[in-house]
UniProtKB/TrEMBL annotation, chain A:
It comes from Macleaya cordata. One of its GO terms (biological process) is mRNA splicing, via spliceosome. This is WD40 repeat. WD repeats lie at residues 14-52, 53-85. One of its GO terms (cellular component) is catalytic step 2 spliceosome. The keyword Repeat does not apply. Belongs to the WD repeat MORG1 family. The keyword Cytoplasm applies.
TrEMBL record, chain B:
Its main location: nucleus. Residues 159-178 form the G-patch domain. It is found in: Nucleus. SMART domains: SWAP. It comes from Macleaya cordata. Residues 412-456 form the SURP motif domain. Keywords: Growth regulation, mRNA processing, Nucleus, RNA-binding, RNA-mediated gene silencing. This is SWAP/Surp.
Length: 248, 1028
């Protein structure tokens, strides 16, 4: 998600971060992370920082709320994923997952799982219910993962300019989407609300749309003058009209 | 009196006399009164007003037997209980107030509620419902031609509601208004209207009319036999009249559905048409149309001859007039309406009633066309991108022009061009505007230097464009700044993600593991694809057999795996042939590989197939690096994604926050334990029955080779005896045995005195045989173990030493005194005497196998647990010892063999044990503590000290120096002792990593071997005795 998803009118400026800021939003709270190795937990209405979670040894790449907004999970360059407690006043992480061997770029949370994409080429699923870690090695650095809306698949954007669609249950590679450029930076990818199309960003500023099933490039459009970073699809159906993108 | 009485006249019913009250009651009252007065309180009885006893004695039921003071049930006020089992689900009880009400209360409540009764069914709903039900019932009784309920649903018996009935009785008829508003004044108009109506509705509205007239007929018949006999239903309430379908539209088709504006027009027109005058006066067109209208079939469009200009009015629509009239009737005076209508008809169509058409209308319907889109409009959002590269670039580049002579001007132009190129055309415009008067900027307007400027600008733009190195998306975004991922990354301070080094190396690192897996797969699966090498990869096409071999060779070369037994050639071939062929193959393979490198990738497809097939069987796989250089990429792709699963422990708090039950229930993770093969080995059960090996050894008279040859036998026996327990293959078992033999408890042989008498001459031989056997096996095992642990395995000790040692041992026992002295010298004088004082029998036949200590030593050294210091100590000790007695020879020899460090400790340990067994002194305690860690080692030391003969009994302290190895002289008693001695077990467990298993195994083993052992040890001790 991007901060651009916030209301178009600037209601509040949340200051405090240096470096990149990514935010995950639930209704009233918001968390952000950045290059300052901290995760901030904001109160949206007042614009105050409720808590600052320190502990990452390097910049934080992604942050997400869990289902109940009780836990903030952050992924950092320090090869770890940390879960922070929003309920208690503790600023210590609830848990540190450091089985990664490289920078963790992206995380997804389900009700029971933490899924993280890592530059070491793995997409790791931590099933809290089963107490299992499932590591799907893609062989290529993963810089963004995104879950399909039905929760059965994971779309992983790899640094070999390929999006890979994985079956979560079996770890099978279902499809590969190519055509765009993604070689060195984090490019977002996601699926449309109907799971019919795959959307991915390209380093040349294009947005690519692929058909989910036959992996053909349906359209690619020049979205930004600059390299674009984020794609978020709101709940509303028509993605064409509602693509949210941030640009520079 | 009688007469008096007769005079009385009685009115009414007499008041009940006192006597009529039930005698019982009366009695009770009387009694109560009496008792209260006379009887002492505790003898009084409590009676209710009926005279029944209320209180009873305990034996007669206590207070108020029966449910008198309860709710009337046995349970009384006992609260309800809830039980629900899997089989007997509790019903969900919904309680209502009715559950708690008595009957009378219920009745009361019911009285308050309102319900309809059939009698006053004002609207007839209830009766209709009833009638329908009745009909349904009947329907069921009599079979219908049409199955199902359809006709009954469609056709309902009609029951008039009470209201209607009442009205009827009062003279009302259907269609009449209820108020009596008939005024004669209206009658004329009504009649007229009716006539008019009849007149003009004779055309298309005829059926309706007829229906209407039916209604009217009703009125006439029933209500209006009156003067006129001609009553129009003008004032009646509207009757819902079904409009019979008269047109030929489809059911539900509404011709005005999408053009409601025509509906009104049509309606008006039709109504206007009904005006007789209008009708007559209608134009020829209309006549034509209307005459035709009946013939125009809906849905068939309008024919070429038919008029279109009258709009597509619905000529079929009908019944509007009726509705209209009704509506207007409700609104009131129909007369007015009719008159209006007439007027309307005369004036104009399309005018609402009550309105007049304006004489002059300046209103004109104006259609608004879509706004004109300017030519330069672009339906994209333009980000404020300053560049106009696209436009400029699209055109041909301006011609190269020499710069103007003036240096200033040239510089200015160049600088300006760069600026414009950076900031966009807007800047140029602005500055042009600004500097109109400035001659210096005349180049902007086509003055001097304009060409140069144009060229320069173009160049600058070109340059900038090149910088971005992006294709210009001319069409949609002609003016945009190009930002590369790099620049963005720079802005954001992002680091380009680098491929994890591990990524590439992982396959290398894990190559071994993968290879292992692969080998497995290779042994179990035959990759069919391998045989299908492309033609190019078949250098031995001529000789299919050879080709086959070659392929096999290739397979093995590239994929590793277990060599087939007949690898490298057919059985017919000689060794030399095979070798030659192999060379051939090597060359051919290389050639093929090179060919592939040139782009043919000849063997690739098969490779890939193979890998793919492999991949399906093993989720994780790897690439053998280097061997398959081409197509590696693809292959990697094929390999991925691979899935691995690990255990992962979510923290309990995390589970809580995720609202998930902790899968590990908050149990802490188990201590990380190095998983080595040893662990698994320990679990593999037991152990050759030592007697067997012993026997065989005896039979073989102790030669090394023979003993070795016995191994199969041993294993066989093992398997036969313990198949149930041992799932492992025999070659795994062997080390297990050994291991146990080496490290299992041996300890004191208390019980061996009983077997003391048995003497066997062959003892020595068996000893030798045993030791050699053990040694060999142990050597094997330890070597492998050492390899596995990554430790250096010291070279095997010369066997001769063993032999010497063994042979020496009995003799050594002779020198008990020396033996005893040694310890005293070295360390603990206190312990020795005690040890010595132990009965001979307890002391157990010692040191049968010198080899054991060695083995242990070996092992220990493998494990590298010893410190140099210890070794040094030991050196000292050994020196001392050496000075002491003969036996020391063996000692020193052992030192030389390099297993020394253990020995030192062991000697100490043994001492400790000794002291321990002798209910040792406190210093012993401390030393014991200190040495606890090494106790396991000390066991070996015991064997060392075996030499020292009688110390053996000290070993009972739990040091089971495994010395006996297979022959291991552990007795059950011994073990029981161990068991009782709790303090020892930790040591042991330390030694093995898992003490428990070992322990139990020891026990098992001991049980099995105890018999033989007894004999053995007995003989030993015997021999010792003899010597002594």
């Amino acid at each position: 998600m991007s901060s651009s998803e916030l209301p178009t009118k600037e209601a509040n400026v949340l200051r405090g971060h240096e470096g990149a800021v990514l935010a995950a939003r639930d209704n009233s709270k918001l968390s952000s992370c950045g290059g300052d190795r901290q995760v901030f937990y904001w109160d949206v209405s007042t614009g105050r920082v409720i808590r600052k979670f320190r502990g990452h040894d390097s910049e934080v790449n992604a942050v997400k709320f869990n289902e109940y907004s009780s836990v903030v999970v952050s992924a950092g360059y320090d090869q770890s994923v940390r879960a922070w407690d929003c309920r208690s006043h503790s600023t210590e992480p609830i848990q540190i997952i450091d089985t990664f061997t490289d920078s963790v770029m992206s995380i997804c949370l389900t009700k029971t799982e933490i899924i993280a994409g890592c530059v070491d080429g793995t997409v790791r699923t931590f099933d809290i219910r089963l107490g299992r870690e499932i590591s799907d090695n893609l062989g290529q650095p993963v810089n963004c993962i995104s879950m399909s809306n039905d929760g059965n698949c994971i779309l992983a954007s790899c640094l070999d300019s390929t999006l890979r669609l994985l079956d979560r249950t079996s770890g099978e590679l279902l499809q590969e989407y190519k055509g765009h450029t993604c070689k060195s930076y984090k490019m977002d990818c996601c699926l449309t609300n109907t799971d019919a199309h795959v959307i991915g960003g390209s380093e040349d500023g294009f947005i690519y749309f692929w058909d989910l099933v036959d992996a053909s490039v349906i359209s690619s459009s020049r979205a930004h003058a600059s390299v674009w970073v984020f794609v978020t699809i709101p709940e509303v159906v028509n993605y064409n009209g509602y693509l949210h993108m941030s640009h520079f | 009196m009688d007469s008096d009485e007769e005079d009385f006249v009685f009115y009414g019913t007499p008041i009940q006399r006192e006597e009529d009250v039930t005698s019982r009651k009366k009695k009770s009252i009387a009694e109560a009164a009496g008792q209260l007065r006379s009887v002492v309180p505790w003898k009084q009885e409590v009676l209710d007003d009926e005279g029944r006893r209320r209180f009873h004695g305990a034996f007669t039921g206590g207070f108020s037997a029966g449910y008198y003071n309860t709710v009337g049930s046995k349970e009384g006020w006992t609260p309800q209980t809830f039980t629900s089992s899997r089989k007997n689900r509790a019903e969900v009880k919904s309680q209502s107030i009715l559950n708690f009400l008595d009957d009378d209360e219920k009745a009361e409540i019911e009285g308050q509620s309102l319900g309809t009764s059939l009698q006053f069914d004002t609207f007839g709903f209830t009766s209709a419902e009833l009638a329908r039900k009745q009909a349904e019932k009947e329907q069921q009784d009599r079979p219908s031609a049409i199955p199902g309920l359809v006709p009954d649903e469609l056709i309902l018996p009609v029951a008039n509601s009470i209201g209607v009935k009442l009205l009827r009785k009062m003279g009302w008829r259907h269609g009449q208004s209820i108020k009596d508003s008939r005024t004669n004044s209206l009658y004329g108009a009504l009649r007229e209207a009716r006539k008019a109506f009849l007149a003009f509705s004779s055309g298309d509205a005829e059926p309706i009319l007829s229906q209407f007239e039916l209604n009217k007929g009703d009125h006439e018949g029933d209500v209006e036999p009156s003067a006129d006999g001609d009553v129009y239903a003008s004032q009646s309430t509207p009757v819902f009249v079904l409009n019979p379908k008269q047109d030929m539209h489809g059911l539900g088709y509404d011709p005005f559905k999408h053009a409601p504006e025509f509906r009104e027009r049509k309606r008006l027109r039709v109504s206007g048409n009904r005006e007789p005058g209008n009708r007559r006066g209608s134009s020829m067109k209309e006549n034509l149309f209307s005459s035709k209208s009946g013939k125009i079939a809906p849905g068939f469009g309008i024919g070429a001859l038919e008029e279109l200009d009258t709009e597509d009015e619905d000529i079929y629509a009908s019944g509007f007039d009726f509705e209209e009239t009704h509506v207007q009737e409700i609104e009131e005076p129909s007369r007015m309406l009719l008159e209006d209508k007439k007027k309307l008809g005369k004036t104009e169509q399309g005018v609402l009633p009550g309105f007049k058409v304006a004489s002059t209308s300046d209103y004109q319907l104006e259609r608004c066309g879509p706004p004109v889109i300017p030519d330069d409009f672009e339906p994209y959002h333009k980000f404020s991108a300053p560049l106009e590269i696209g436009n400029k670039l699209s055109g041909p580049p301006p011609p190269e022009v020499p710069p103007p002579e003036e240096n200033d001007l040239r510089l200015l132009i160049e600088g300006f061009a760069a600026l414009v190129a950076r900031c966009g055309k807007l800047f140029e415009d602005l500055s042009r505007e600004k500097n109109k008067k400035n001659p210096l900027f005349s180049f902007l307007d086509g003055g001097k230097g304009h060409d140069y400027y144009a060229r320069k600008l173009w160049e600058e733009q070109q340059k900038r464009n090149d910088q971005t190195k992006q294709q210009v998306y001319i069409k949609s975004m002609p003016n945009e700044q190009k930002m590369t991922a790099e620049s963005r990354g720079k802005i954001l301070g992002e680091r380009p993600l680098e491929r994890s080094s591990k990524d590439s190396s992982s396959s290398v690192v894990s190559a071994d593991v993968i290879q292992l897996q692969f080998n497995l797969s290779d042994t179990f699966t035959t990759p069919a694809s391998i045989s299908e090498f492309p033609e190019a990869a078949k250098p031995f096409k001529a000789d299919p057999e050879k080709q086959e071999r070659f392929e096999r060779f290739l397979k093995e070369k590239y994929y590793g795996g277990l060599r087939t037994t007949h690898s490298g050639g057919s059985s017919k071939m000689s060794e030399a042939d095979r070798a030659r062929e192999k060379l051939d193959f090597e060359a051919a393979a290389e050639a093929i590989q090179k060919g592939g490198g040139h782009g043919k990738l000849t063997e690739l497809p098969s490779n890939q197939q193979f890998w793919a097939s492999l991949n399906t069987q093993f989720t994780s796989g790897g690439v053998e690096q280097g061997k398959i250089p081409q197509g590696e990429e693809q292959m990697i792709n094929k390999m991925y994604p691979k899935r691995e699963e690990y255990q992962w422990r979510p923290s309990s708090l995390l589970c809580k926050r995720f609202d998930i039950i902790d899968p590990y229930m908050g149990k802490p993770p188990p201590l990380p334990r190095a998983k080595s093969r040893i662990d698994s080995l320990i679990f593999t059960p037991d152990f050759v029955k030592p007697t067997k090996s012993e026997e065989t050894a005896v039979a073989s008279t102790g030669s090394l080779f023979v003993s070795k040859s016995e191994e199969p036998v041993i294993t066989e026996q093992k398997t036969s005896q313990e198949t149930a327990i041992e799932p492992n293959t025999t070659n795994v078992e062997r080390p297990v045995d050994l291991y146990k033999a080496i490290f299992s408890d041996d300890s004191d042989d208390e019980g061996e005195s009983s077997t003391f008498n048995h003497v066997e001459d062959t003892e020595k031989k068996t000893e030798v045989a045993n030791t050699t056997l053990n040694r060999l096996i142990a050597g094997d095992f330890l070597e492998s173990l050492g390899k596995e642990l990554g430790l250096e395995v010291p070279p095997e000790a010369p066997i001769t030493i063993n032999k010497v040692g063994i042979s020496a041992s009995p003799k050594e026992t002779i020198s008990t005194s020396a033996d005893v002295k040694i310890p005293s010298v070295s360390d603990k004088p206190s312990s020795t005497p005690i040890a010595f004082s132990k009965p001979l029998a307890d002391q157990e036949a010692p040191n049968c196998n010198l080899s054991h200590p060695e083995i242990i030593g070996e092992r220990a050294s493998d494990r590298n647990e010893l410190k140099e210091a210890a070794a040094r100590d030991f050196g000292n000790n050994s020196l001392v010892i050496a000075s002491k007695g003969k036996k020391t020879k063996t000692h020193s020899r052992r030192d030389q063999s390099g297993r020394s460090p253990e020995d030192e400790r062991s000697t100490r340990g043994s001492r400790h044990h000794r002291s321990l067994s002798s209910t040792s002194s406190e210093e012993d305690e401390t030393t014991r503590k200190r040495s606890r860690r090494h106790r396991s080692r000390s066991s070996s030391s015991d064997t060392d000290s075996d030499d020292h003969g009688y110390r053996k009994h000290s070993r009972k302290s739990g040091k089971r120096s495994s010395s006996r190895g297979k022959s291991g002289s552990s007795s059950s008693k011994k073990h029981s002792k161990h068991r009782s001695r709790k303090e020892e077990s930790p040591n042991r467990s330390f030694r093995r990593g898992s003490g428990k298993e070992e322990h139990s195994e020891d026990r098992k083993r001991s049980r099995k071997s105890s018999e033989r052992e007894k004999d053995y040890s007995a003989s030993k001790s015997d021999s010792h005795k003899k010597y002594r």
